[in-house]
Design a protein that fits this description.
The chain has 260 residues and is an alpha/beta fold. Helices cover 44% and strands 15% of the residues. The protein contains eight helices and seven strands. It has a seven-stranded parallel beta sheet with strand order 3-2-1-4-5-6-7, with helices on both faces. The longest helix has 29 residues, at 110-138.
């Protein structure tokens, strides 16, 4: 088979969280361009509809769900409704997450810690349990892609909020464990570990803390932040037949930052 044909996703269905902006938007658009129909879940109505329209312009079907997936109970209900209305799904991308606060560990309130660990780890578990679990029961294989972070491997510099490092490291171990458990079902489970990308939250952070971002960029061998679209091709690869022998992997895309 032609190698480019192996990257096609025609007839496949994608469920992606945090799919309306930044990295999630670009991955959703990339998989749609490769042929997948998409169910997008995100909080922002305006950005969600804009991304949905862009996917429709590619000739793909799209379903949108406005929801805050950081609430575990709501997350379960949304997954089950999506399966009922738009499933079964062939591809799951767990993209929701974020540091959100810059609070030192010694000052971190317990309820805030739990809230943010739920956002970055528990939501990945819940979506994988329901959407991935349906792949197991269906018996036709599938792809699970978890968006972790290089901070699952190295601590963020000049920033607090270590809930993020802890939760994203948990995502990596969940990825590896499920890769072993679900290999027998033809389901691959892999993680993407981005460095710092020029997303809207990071642009806001850069305006408020330019010295932190400048120091970060100086530590990147390629000398610049990643662009969200840089992630799209990697997601397409992992979702496709081209990556059928890759599972349990944690793929770093950070301009060389973690090489130093």
């Amino acid at each position: 088979m032609n190698v480019f044909n192996r990257l096609r996703l025609d007839g496949k269905k994608l469920f992606i969280t945090g799919g309306s902006r930044g990295l999630g938007r670009e991955m959703a658009l990339g998989l749609a361009e490769a042929g997948a129909d998409v169910t997008l879940v995100a909080r922002g109505t305006e950005s969600l509809e804009k991304t949905a329209n862009d996917i429709r312009a590619l000739g793909r079907k799209v379903t949108t769900i406005v929801a805050d997936m950081s609430n575990s109970e709501a997350c379960e209900a949304i997954c089950e409704k999506a399966l009922s209305d738009s499933g079964p799904f062939d591809i799951l991308i767990n993209n929701i997450g974020g540091r959100r606060v810059n609070i030192a560990t010694e000052d971190m309130p317990l309820n805030k810690w739990k809230e943010l660990v739920d956002l970055n780890l528990t939501t990945t578990f819940v979506c994988t349990k329901h959407i991935g679990g349906a792949m197991v029961r269906r018996g036709q294989g599938g792809r699970v892609i978890n968006v972790a972070s290089i901070n699952a491997m190295v601590a963020g510099r000049n920033i607090q909020g270590r809930h993020y490092e802890a939760a994203k490291a948990g995502v990596l171990m969940l990825t590896r464990s499920l890769a072993v458990d679900w290999a027998r079902y033809g389901i691959t489970v892999n993680a993407i570990c981005p460095g710092i990308f020029a997303t809207e939250p990071n642009k806001v952070w850069a305006e408020k803390n330019p010295e932190v971002i400048d120091a970060y960029v100086q530590s990147i061998p390629l000398g610049k932040l990643g662009e969200p679209e840089d992630l799209a091709a990697l997601a397409v690869y992992l979702a496709s037949d081209a990556a059928r022998y890759m599972t349990g992997a944690s793929l770093v895309i950070d301009g060389g930052y973690t090489c130093l």
